[in-house]
Amino acid sequence: METTYRLSLHRFAITELAANGLDTDWLLRETGIPHWSMDDGDIQVPSSAYARMWDVAARALDDPLVPARVGCRFTLGAGGLCDYLFSTSATIGEGLATVGPFISDITTNHRLSRTEEDNGDITFGFEIIEGDDTARDLTHLWAVVSLRGRARRVAAGPFDAVRVRLRQRAPRNHTDLHDLVGTRAIEFGASEDSITFRAADMDVPLTTADPVLHAILEKVAATVPPPPPLASAWVDQVSEALAEAFVAGDASLATVARRLMVSRRTLQRRLTEAGTTWRQELDRARLERLRRADTAGKHLGRARQAEILGYSGPQAIRRAARRWESIAERRVSDGPVPAGRS
Fold it and tell me: Which fold has domain 230-334?
């Protein structure tokens, strides 16, 4: 199963990267994220898109530390429910302890470990599940700094790292990293990616502590299903775009692709990944449009049906009606439709 990241992380990062001079539309194209997703709700995006975002940004800005710079400005809420579980905890230690069990709400591509050192200091280690060395280095740089940044946002007192260990080789210029991670004790070429905090700092209270709300959120977190993957969200977006295209009088593949700001090939590929095809989604949209007309009390003849659905004539709509019989009660959200079937 493909690992994913919550889209809200991409939105936060892309907004920050745009503030540093990168064009949002260019970033979305380069990462393979559809433009409409910037305004969408909770969905999950393939891990490859997240790694690609950091890679192209680091290259475009000629700055290998850009994930750390963005992570330092982490905004609570970008991590969804996990962030609110953290911020409503009583102390930094209790808040960070909630991140590990619920990290899958942010990403399914990372494992977060918590180890108590002999002197009582706490080390958080990061492991990536899917991604090469470059993807690991960039995303873990983000993860290490954003973990500290999350806590600094709401800590009632000073809060810095004791030590940071990174698998990556030292960048050509990394003096800024001392301030970004909160310590000069940075080890490159290490056996792990981790950040260590003082034991005493785990008792620093949070300014946003809310034990009543925290207890409620814990119950919610235990029952809330994960957000849908991007593939499922694509089908919903295509459905909306098709409905608008029919109203405008042109429901062609090219028109719908333009509405979603992707190429026709990309649109077809995304639908295939979702277990459906352009033809199937077009038929669904036409059937829904016809149903709405019937519900409104308009008993339309075949010729009129063909006209409002964009068919050449009554004969074409009769052929389509036979296809509709097999999909009338099926939706991709209820289960994949074999891509070759129509």
Answer: Arc Repressor Mutant, subunit A (1.10.10)
pLDDT in tens, 224-260: 776 666 666 778 878 888 888 888 878 888 888 887 7
**Average of per-residue pLDDT across 271-277:** 78
Higher-scoring residue by pLDDT: 328, 77: 77
What is the tens place of the pLDDT at every residue in 158-205? Answer: 888 999 999 999 988 788 899 888 899 999 999 999 999 999 999 999
3-class DSSP state for residue 27?
helix
Helix (H) or strand (E) run with residue 188 in it: strand 186-188
Residues 6+ apart with CB under 8 A from 262: 34, 35, 270
Closest CA to 164 of 179, 151, 150, 153: 179
- CA separation for the pair 120, 66 (Å, rounded): 32
Helix (H) or strand (E) holding 125: strand 122-128
Q: How far apart are CA 131 and CA 261, in angstroms?
A: 27
Per the document, the length of the chain is: 342
Cα angle 287-291-292, degrees, rounded to a multiple of 5? 120
Alpha-carbon span 123 to 116, nearest angstrom: 6
Domains in the chain: boundaries? 4-221, 230-334
What is the 3 state secondary structure string of 260-328?
CCCCHHHHHHHHHHCCCCHHHHHHHHHHHHHHHHHHCCCCCCHHHHHHHHCCCCHHHHHHHHHHHHHHC
> In whole angstroms, what is the distance from residue 28 CA to residue 31 CA?
5
Tokens in use for 118? 């002999």
Instruction: Give domain 4-221's CATH number out of 3.90.1520.10, 3.40.50.150, 3.30.450.20, 3.40.50.1820.
Output: 3.90.1520.10
